[in-house]
Inverse folding.
């Protein structure tokens, strides 16, 4: 549904989000009046998923421009630029966040008055959101041919409507395949520790009437071994020259899929491409201990034990069967991705 995940409220000049930490138990919205609240929402994962973070970053700069009290252009621009850096600092791995921020910042910096800055910032942010929805449809249309009819597709984390403006990337491909008449069952890995698969992927697919079954992450290998998985499809947070960064656990599925001869697909917009980097140079977000050491209100790790909580991992290109962008299907050795990335800079 358009604007459900994130939208600009024209009447109040606020950014409105569907609170993804409350799903599936409660469907409630959060209204961000200022950049500080939006930055907090990103940190807490009230809004999450790479393309949705791009939209949030874009709206965040528009929000900063709308809220700044500076009367002269120079301090106004400094104010907006500080807000942009605050937003950028919230999550380091998904490249879309910076991409969305910079797209709007560039328009603001080229404007000649405060009023013009505000106008172009909001127009560009709305364009980022609208384009993302169209891009997801294109990704879906390209990728649908890869999915089997009457097959089972395994996915990890949430790369759906909740992670984008609408439709989704990996789940967009599944939606497009279903819309084209294919019968598809989805295995949603729960995605420890924050359960984006169990809470979010299952919620949105069930709502669409697409058959979905939740499994614990560690069941994926044995189900592949038993012949119960026809292909794997996931989204991405950053695609470097040599690897796909996505939610931690993705690499494990790619290794298992290769071992069992199962295709492993990635669906992502061009704005996720980062061909100037290699996997070694990417900062992987390490999140709070409590996300692992507690399960709801219950402590599940003794105080004396250490905890590691990396939020993402890198799947090397040799394990990836295809990457689907809005341009089409890219196959190993992914030489065509560089040209696609060039187009996303325009
Ligand atoms: O920590 P999250 O929930 O923001 O992680 C999200 C993912 O890893 C998604 O798979 C990725 O952003 C692709 S979303 C289309």
């Amino acid at each position: 549904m358009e604007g459900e995940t994130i939208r600009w409220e024209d009447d109040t000049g606020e950014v409105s989000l569907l609170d993804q930490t409350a799903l599936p138990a409660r469907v409630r919205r959060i209204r961000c009046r200022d950049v500080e609240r939006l930055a907090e929402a990103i940190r807490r994962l009230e809004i999450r998923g790479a393309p949705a973070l791009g939209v949030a970053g874009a709206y965040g700069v528009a929000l900063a421009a709308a809220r700044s009290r500076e009367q002269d252009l120079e301090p106004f621009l400094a104010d907006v630029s500080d807000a942009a850096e605050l937003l950028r600092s919230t999550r380091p791995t998904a490249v879309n966040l910076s991409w969305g921020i910079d797209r709007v910042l560039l328009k603001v910096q080229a404007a000649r008055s405060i009023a013009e800055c505000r106008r172009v910032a909001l127009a560009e942010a709305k364009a980022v959101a609208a384009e993302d929805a169209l891009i997801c449809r294109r990704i879906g249309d390209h990728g649908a041919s890869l999915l089997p009819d009457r097959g089972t597709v395994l996915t990890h984390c949430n790369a759906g409507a909740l992670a984008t403006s609408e439709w989704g990337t990996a789940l967009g491909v599944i939606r497009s395949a279903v819309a084209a008449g294919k019968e598809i069952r989805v295995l949603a890995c729960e995605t420890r520790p924050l359960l984006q698969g169990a809470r979010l992927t299952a919620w949105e697919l069930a709502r669409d009437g697409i058959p979905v079954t939740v499994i614990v992450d560690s069941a994926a290998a044995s189900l592949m071994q038993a012949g119960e998985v026809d292909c794997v499809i996931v989204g991405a947070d950053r695609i470097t020259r040599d690897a796909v960064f996505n939610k931690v656990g993705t690499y494990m599925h790619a290794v298992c899929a290769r071992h069992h001869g199962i295709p492993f697909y990635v669906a992502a917009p061009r704005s996720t491409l980062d061909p100037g980097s290699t996997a070694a140079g990417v900062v992987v977000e390490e999140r709070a201990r409590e996300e692992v050491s507690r399960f709801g209100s219950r402590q599940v790790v003794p105080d004396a034990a250490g905890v590691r909580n990396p939020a993402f991992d890198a799947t090397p290109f040799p394990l990836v069967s295809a990457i689907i962008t809005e341009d089409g299907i890219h196959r190993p050795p992914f030489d065509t991705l560089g040209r696609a990335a060039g187009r996303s800079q325009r």
The chain has two domains: 6-137, 140-344. The longest strand covers residues 151-156. Residues 45, 48-51, 94, 157, 159, 163-164, 169, 196, 234-237, 246-247, 311 surround MRU (CB under 6 Å). The radius of gyration is 20 Å.
